[in-house]
Write a structure and sequence with these properties.
Elements lengths: L2 E13 L2 E11 L3 E5 L6 H8 L7 E6 L2 E2 L4 H7 L1 E3 L11 H12 L4 H10 L13 H13 L5 E5 L7 H17 L2 E5 L3 H7 L2 E6 L2 E7 L5 H9 L3 H7 L27
Parallel strand pairs: 3-8, 3-9, 6-7, 7-8
Antiparallel strand pairs: 1-2, 1-4, 4-5, 9-10
Helix pairs in contact: 3-5
This protein binds adenosine-5'-triphosphate.
Length: 264
């Protein structure tokens, strides 16, 4: 494989076990890879390292052979990045935000921008401050995809999108894959990973833990990969498993199989 996105032994240590540690990961040209991990596992930190927003303590992150930190200006122009949360002045309108992003990336394909805006039924004229969560997310998606980048880093891309828009997003990523784009996509949504990705890599407590074909992501197998083999046992045993103020319900008795048959 000729990797486009590559991490080699990357560590960013925030202390107290927080951060990412010795990450090695390669995404080949035209591959769509899902990046799965529990809350706080290190997905966004990895994305930010790849965008050159933060500098690794150790190891090397590169995209297309360019060092993500040393060549960050070029990386940030070239890569379509959808952050977990849009960072922009709240007073800005959506249109001004898209203009700003297009100017920053030197990408000004007005037709594609209009097509994406229509596809997601987005009216970008409002001030970002007044937009709903899903509308802001659509704005971020249009900004990330409008330059037709050949590399996309998408951090929880369907967060806040309604079901129809989630489906449209899956269709868009499939079209980008057919176009040959290389994509790393973090997600908590199994259907989205199954619908778009070739394979999934798992991160636990800042370390890559396992890898699976997207087609093999059953719920139980994924829970195990995310939290460990005893995940479900630990969940039920944990004091936090009871909903505050609600007495825990006794476990439902398993229906005894009748020896007389009598199925209806
Ligand atoms: N600037 C920072 N300073 C200190 N700790 C940080 C910083 N950024 C991230 N962390 C810590 O690094 C760990 C990984 O965070 P990250 O945001 O990458 O998680 P995530 O996998 O994206 O989680 P989620 O699914 O909740 O979005 C967390 O413990 C987080 O608190």
């Amino acid at each position: 494989m000729n990797p486009v996105i590559e991490l080699r032994g990357v560590t960013k240590d925030y202390g107290a076990g927080r951060g990412v540690f010795g990450l090695s990961l390669a995404v080949g040209r035209g591959e769509v890879v899902g990046f799965l991990g529990a809350n706080g596992a290190g997905k966004s930190v990895t994305m930010r390292l790849l965008m050159g927003f933060i500098r690794a303590d150790e190891g090397r992150a590169s995209i297309g052979g360019a060092d993500c930190f040393a060549d960050r200006a070029a990386i940030q122009r070239r890569v379509g990045y959808l952050p977990g949360e849009l960072a922009c002045p709240a007073d800005m309108t959506g249109v001004a935000f898209l203009d700003f992003m297009a100017a920053m990336r030197g990408a000004s394909d007005a037709r594609r921008r209009a097509e994406l805006t229509a596809f997601f039924e987005l009216d970008p004229r409002a001030r970002i401050r007044s937009m709903s969560k899903g509308t802001k997310q659509k704005l971020g998606i249009v900004a990330a995809f409008m330059g037709a980048p050949d590399v996309l880093l998408l951090d929880e891309p369907t967060s806040g999108l309604d079901l129809l828009m989630q489906r449209r997003f899956v269709e868009l990523v499939r079209a980008e894959r057919d176009r040959g784009a290389t994509v790393l996509l973090s997600s908590h949504v199994l259907g989205e990973v199954e619908g778009t990705c070739d394979r999934a890599v798992f991160i636990r407590a800042g370390r890559l833990s396992s890898e699976a074909r997207a087609a093999d992501l059953t719920l139980d197998a994924t829970l195990e990969r995310l939290y460990g083999a005893d995940a479900l046992d630990r969940h039920w045993a944990a004091p936090g498993a009871a909903v505050p103020g609600v007495a825990p319900a006794p476990p439902a008795p398993v229906p005894a199989a009748s020896s007389k048959g009598g199925s209806r």
